[in-house]
Amino acid sequence: QVQLVESGGGLVQAGGSLRLSCAASGSIFSIDAMGWYRQAPGKQRDLVADITRGGSTKYRDSVKGRFTISRDNDKNAVYLQMNSLKPEDTAVYYCNVKSMGGLRDSWGQGTQVTVSS
């Protein structure tokens, strides 16, 4: 099993920046892709960005050019640098880890990101 601990959420003004961090522990030898999802009240939980162990990334269209995902395989950590934040980025952000050849999904507890206008 993989345990995930997230940090870095908070309240910021539009145009500001936040950096989310997620540290994995447990069965870390089996980690494949890592990523971030977000969910606003009454909305579906959607992918924000993910990154493979080799460093290939993908982003949802609305965050391209503003967010950057990265990972440190030695630290078993994944990060999301969020710049030029907009009110529509407000959501609970969840760290996600795919492991065991993609057969297992692990989730963090979620961290609130609130962007005021």
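Above is the first protein from milestone M3; the second protein from the same milestone is given next.
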Amino acid sequence: QVQLVESGGGLVQAGGSLRLSCAASERTGSRYFMGWFRQAPGKEREFVSAINWRSGTTNYADSVKGRFTISRDNAKNTVYLQMNSLKPEDTAVYYCAADPSFVLRVTGRLWDYWGQGTQVTVSS
């Protein structure tokens, strides 16, 4: 029903920046969240950031606060993740996701729609 297409992953040096994009084929509803999760090798999938599409309210994991910024473009039905001051520990596969929920849920398995994932590698 909802297709998410990601782009923008790549290889950067520590301290560099990268911008991820996620275009949705259609909106999930009048109230929902879009966000990003990541999974590093040997680690569990973890919540990174989310935005309430209607209100614009944002949430961030403590590990990325002050460095990452999530935003949206209504005309393009696209969500972005601007990643600055990247660290090697940010290396992971980043997944765009959408959740038609009334409240923010940070447990990935509860989200309904997922992108294909894009690799972000930060060299030291």
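Note on the second protein: The chain is about 0% helix and 50% strand.
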